[in-house]
Design goal:
The protein is of the alpha/beta class. About 40% of the residues lie in helices and about 15% in strands. It binds S-adenosylmethionine (SAM).
Length: about 240
């Protein structure tokens, strides 16, 4: 086992195995809702980034969640926006039907889920006011990362937000202890710890041209691209494959 100074992209998460135990996978996806509420910081991101953007939208707003998994982040954003009086619809996309089955089990009017890769939506010419993702970036290698970032900027030229874990020893130690009550019968412990090892730091993501990397809450990184950001594809970025210390 290597330390946390460098990203460990060789580690594979158990849930990424198409043949993994379906019962444990379902529990993992369902419990993501609790994990995301506790650690992902979308309340802060909603107040500081999403709500101001919604104020600028004339008419109903559309939000797309790329790699929606169990769909809880999208439902949470739509519910918050509606409480604030915005007219909002949501589309969660994920090519993995196993996550979509969990998404669809919790219905929210105006929120739909589709089996699709972000590039499918780009090819179909779809447009949204805001594109988001949560816990997707650390699953991706440099080429896939560039594709998802470019896709999100094409789908939502006004605002794209990608939230993920930021790799650190403290995050690793805190997660190893904190996940204990939620872990039994799921992949949450193994995959969460592997996720932290696979994730990038704010400094590593800050090298991406056209994207702003920040830490909205502890242990997190948020990549933001807005209409005012300098243009240029993430696919020209050199540093995403090369971890820096
Ligand atoms: C760990 S899950 C995250 C689920 C959910 N967002 C959450 O936070 O609980 C990552 C998901 O991203 C999906 N994914 C990766 N790249 C994608 C892309 N380009 N378009 C759509 N989904 C993608 C994978 O299929 C996987 O289900």
């Amino acid at each position: 086992m290597t330390g946390l100074a460098a990203r460990d992209e060789r580690l594979r998460e158990l849930m990424d195995d198409p043949d993994c135990d379906p019962v444990r996978l379902r529990r993992t996806l369902e419990r993501f809702a609790v994990v995301n509420r506790l650690v992902s910081g979308w309340g802060t991101v909603y107040r500081t980034r999403v709500r101001p953007a919604l104020r600028a939208v004339a008419g109903p707003a559309r939000i797309v969640d790329i790699g929606c998994g169990g769909g809880d982040v999208l439902r949470g954003l739509v519910a918050r926006a509606r409480r604030d009086g915005f007219e909002v619809t949501g589309l969660g996309i994920d090519p993995d039907e196993r996550g979509l089955a969990v998404s669809r089990a919790t219905a929210l009017p105006g929120v739909d889920y589709r089996a699709a890769h972000s590039s499918d939506l780009v090819a179909a010419g779809e447009r949204f006011d805001i594109a988001v993702s949560n816990h997707v970036l650390h699953h991706l290698d440099a080429r896939e990362l560039a594709t998802v970032l470019d896709d999100s900027a094409a789908l939502a030229p006004s605002l794209a937000l990608h939230s993920d874990i930021a790799r650190s020893r403290l995050a690793y130690a805190a997660y190893a202890v904190g996940i204990t009550p939620l872990a039994p019968g799921s992949f949450l412990r193994t995959d969460g710890l592997r996720s932290i090892r696979r994730s990038r730091t704010v400094a590593e993501l800050a090298t991406l041209p056209g994207w702003d990397a920040s830490a909205p809450v502890p242990f997190r990184v948020l990549l933001t691209r807005s209409a005012s950001a300098p243009t240029g594809p993430a696919s020209t970025a050199p540093a995403t494959a090369t971890p820096r210390r």
